[in-house]
Amino acid sequence: MPQSSPSAVRRRAVLGTLATGVTALSGGCVRRLRTVAGWRSANQVSLDIKTVPADADPYALRLARQVAAWFRAAGIDAQVTPMASEELLRQVLVQNDFELFVARLPDQFHEPDGLYSLLHSRFADAPGWQNPFGYANLDVDDLLETQRTTTGAERREAVYELQRSIARTQPFTLLAFPDDIRAARTDNYRNWRTADLNSPLGYLSLARSDGDATPAAGASTLNGGDGTVRATSNSNSSSPITSSTATPTLTPTATPTETPTRTDGTTGASEARTLRTATTDKRATENLNPLSVEYRRDGLITGLLYDSLGVETGDGVEAWLAESWAFSGGGNAPSASVRLRPDLTWHDGESLTAEDVAFTHRLLADTSMETGTTTEDEGDTRIPAPRFQGRNSLVADVRATGTHTVEFDFVECEPKLATRAFTVPVLPKHIWQERTSRASVSGIEIGPATEAIVTNNIPPVGSGPFAFAQNTPRESLVLERFDEHFLFEASTEAGFPAQPPEFERLSVQVVGSDMTAVEMVADADADVTGTTVGASTVPRIGRAPDLELLVGRSETPFILGHNAGRPPMTNPRFRNTLARLVDQSFLVDDVFGGYARPAMSPLAGTGWVPDDLRWDGENSVTPFFGTDGELNADRAREAFRDAGYQYSDGKLLEGN
Predict the structure, then answer these.
(1) pLDDT tens-digit series, residues 108-137
(2) Rounded (10°) angle between helices 152-169 and 138-149
(3) Cis peptide before 568 (omega within 30 of 0)
(4) Which pLDDT score is estimated for 465?
(5) Which of 23, 69, 295, 496 could form a disulfide with 283 if both were Cys (CB 3.0 to 4.6 A apart)?
(6) Res 228: pLDDT
(7) Beta strand 230-231 with 316-319: parallel, antiparallel or unpaired?
(8) Which of 125, 137, 52, 60 is nearest to 93 (CA)?
(9) CA 256, CA 125: separation in Å to the nearest integer?
(10) Which residues of the chain register pLDDT less than 70?
């Protein structure tokens, strides 16, 4: 039999007194009892922190547990709930079923306009990394709009003030920017230190140690195409990797799936031509849908399978599938004419045309392709893709004007900023137009989702430099080089952002922990750890012969995300006070072993941070209530009382 809480029992007792003794009371006493009965004893503030287990990430669970310990010291009933990576992202980014979560922000938020979709209130009800916090701040909205429509000093000041407002109101609390640590073998590839292993371009740049590149038959190197425009945006690339000797799914495939793209298949091929990675992230072996927010860690694998019109480099957005683009138009809303490279093909042999580009942007805006109609009863019926909304929101209209030409009309923004829309993956219309129906199970619709969102997309049909070969769910994935890609068929152009890959296959092997991944590399069963590993593996990497320790600055911080739609996180003063229970410097030393850096802004490490938000030994906006990881509980309680909250027997109470 369900048991009632003590407060509920007490409240029923008071109500019972009112019912049985009312005739014996005067009118004034009745009114007083009714007033007393309307109040109930306040409960202790209880917060659940969701995150992933230790085998999925070397730091997340330890971060969550330390934060929970600080919260408990301040009188909050704090618990930690670990769950699988895809389940965490599903609950947080799709279902909005969380109070707090610990996770890493994707790298697209490390430049000013990336914060538009992360924090603008227009995305508060959108799925995915579109404002998963439910954060609404009109001043922040205005600043996000201003940074899109201005340049120079005016834009810079808007970005500065935007960061200050974020630091005060705390839609999320920055924990640290961890270093990317990997182990790599030195006998097969030689330029690990200069390759960005969080980027498809970084993998394409890997050079074999033996110097034998084995290009495709009849291929030379690469071509940017005459008239290529390299439009520079205000983005920042990853810092080069330093080293010392000493990188994703809804309905998994039930059995191994194989779609050979070469006559020799993958069996019996030369292992020397295979780049072998060991990863702790199994999601890419189960799902290769670039629109799936639960199964994408960083878009690395899908970035090798799918091309975009342009790619982000250290110099901005440079032409890729596009041969050139040119901006025009008066006023503040620019237009652009984009010309595709000739003779582009999909992995299944179909031609890639301008209609595929136009279709992609329409699909991202509404995966049901119902033209975004609005009805009085149902409201907006569109089902936008849970990824790429920030970039696609720059596009007002897009249309194919020829086989190889596309016209874009943009919202009010600067042309350099508009080029971010060129970095979304282009999808084949002949495949994805069949996925616009509402998702269903046994004929029953399962909510506001389409097949485009829920499909695992195995086997995928892309146009990228690598094509799908085979997968075994939760175990392995193999991609094979697509020799009809334009990288292999064109002539050299100085300054083009990539070279043809010097490996024929990419093999992804799933392992149970980051230490196991390092052991695979040490035993020559893998060339590199495909996902980053924890600081505890550094001594093992340093002792192993033929291993290189790669340590690089990361652009993806760990955050404590707040659900601003649930009390008490609806109160910005409460969130600000919570942030002061976190000692970032202690986390860097204790959890990350020094392989991280604290910060006050998600743009830390870029040229966009104002001097007053640069880390100088402590957090000047939300300084920790204590020293060296020891929380001063008295100061914490005083701050919560100043924010309007109360304590009882050392417990922080709900309501204020």
Answers:
(1) 888 999 999 999 999 998 889 999 999 999
(2) 160
(3) yes
(4) 96
(5) 295
(6) 31
(7) antiparallel
(8) 125
(9) 37
(10) 1-41, 211-272, 330-331, 371-380, 440-447, 490-495, 656
Identity at 458, one-letter amino acid code: I
pTM across the whole model: 0.83
Q: What are phi and psi of 33, to 5 degrees?
A: -65, -40
- In this structure, how many other beta carbons lie within 10 angstroms of the beta carbon of residue 643? 16
| Separation of alpha carbons 368 and 440, rounded Å | 13
List 398's β-bridge partners, or say none.
Answer: 408
CA torsion sign, 16 to 22 to 24 to 27?
A: positive
pLDDT at 28: 52
CA dist 454 → 88, 132, 188, 294, 602 (Å)? 16, 19, 38, 10, 30
Place of tokens 């002539």: 491
- Residue tagged 């999601």 (tokens): 283
d(Cα 345, Cα 353) in Å, to the nearest integer?
8
* Contact predicate 354/475, CB 8 Å: no
Nearest of 535, 536, 518 to residue 526 by alpha carbon: 518
Both tokens assigned to 297: 């860690």
Please name which of 319, 318, 323 lies closest in space to residue 343, comparing C-alpha atoms: 323
- Which residues are within 8 A (CB) of 655 and not within 5 positions of it... i.e. 6 or more apart? 42, 645, 646
Dihedral sign, Cα of residue 520, residue 523, residue 526, residue 529: positive
Per-residue pLDDT of 563-588, as tens digits, reads: 999 999 999 999 999 999 999 999 99
CA distances from 401 to 322, 340, 358, 408 (A): 15, 12, 10, 10
In whole angstroms, give the CA distance from residue 306 to residue 467: 9
Structure-token match 């995928």, residue found: 460
